[in-house]
Design goal:
This protein starts with a helix and ends with a helix. It is mainly alpha-helical. Strands 1-2 form a two-stranded antiparallel ribbon. This is Phage scaffolding protein.
Length: 188
């Protein structure tokens, strides 16, 4: 979805901004899910390959039942540790994605610039919520407000050339010269 396409449909700049914001939230959520599933798939593939190799090694090296039982116990412990490490990695990744999403929603100008100010150890995931993050974001917004977009509208330049957020500075009256130039510009 591009801004130009929305302009062609006749939407105002405010409407376009609203559509792009909603679209961005949807894309961010979907991207988070895709990244999580991709990492999970890759991790499971590597675990499967590792276990297949362990079985091949086990068949080659097993001379007697005692050696085989000992090797099985060791492999089970190793596999359990790998599984726990993988679950921790996924939980950390999910938490990081949610923190980045929350920073985008708080209108951080650059998420990577704000992340070092966040103590992720104090942030906990509770279902779909993050505990301890809102307080940190508010503190950063107060101490380092330049890192966040304050929502002030950008000054628009009208045809009259004034920089008064879209007002032409003539008490609502349009200069006839400006009107004639605007009419000629539209016909081009």
């Amino acid at each position: 979805m591009k801004r130009e396409d929305l302009k062609k449909l006749g939407l105002s700049d405010e409407q376009i901004e609203g559509v792009m914001s909603a679209h961005g939230k949807d894309i961010t959520s979907l991207q988070e899910k895709v990244n999580g599933l991709t990492n999970e798939r890759d991790g499971l593939k590597s675990q499967l390959d590792e276990r297949d190799q362990q079985l091949v090694d086990l068949q080659k090296n097993s001379k007697n039942v005692d050696d085989l039982n000992e090797k099985i116990k060791q492999l089970q412990a190793d596999n359990q540790k790998v599984n726990e490490d993988w679950q921790n990695k996924l939980a950390t990744q999910t938490k990081n994605f949610r923190i980045e999403t929350a920073l985008r929603e708080a209108k951080a100008r650059n998420v990577k610039a704000v992340l070092p100010f966040i103590d992720t150890e104090k942030v906990t995931v509770d279902g779909d919520n993050l505990k301890g993050l809102d307080e940190q974001i508010k503190a950063i917004q107060q101490s380092d407000s330049y890192l966040f977009d304050e929502g002030k509208p950008e000054p628009r330049i009208n045809i009259g050339g004034a920089f008064n957020n879209g007002e032409n500075g003539t008490d609502g009256k349009v200069d006839p010269v400006v009107s004639s130039i605007a009419a000629r510009m539209k016909s081009i």
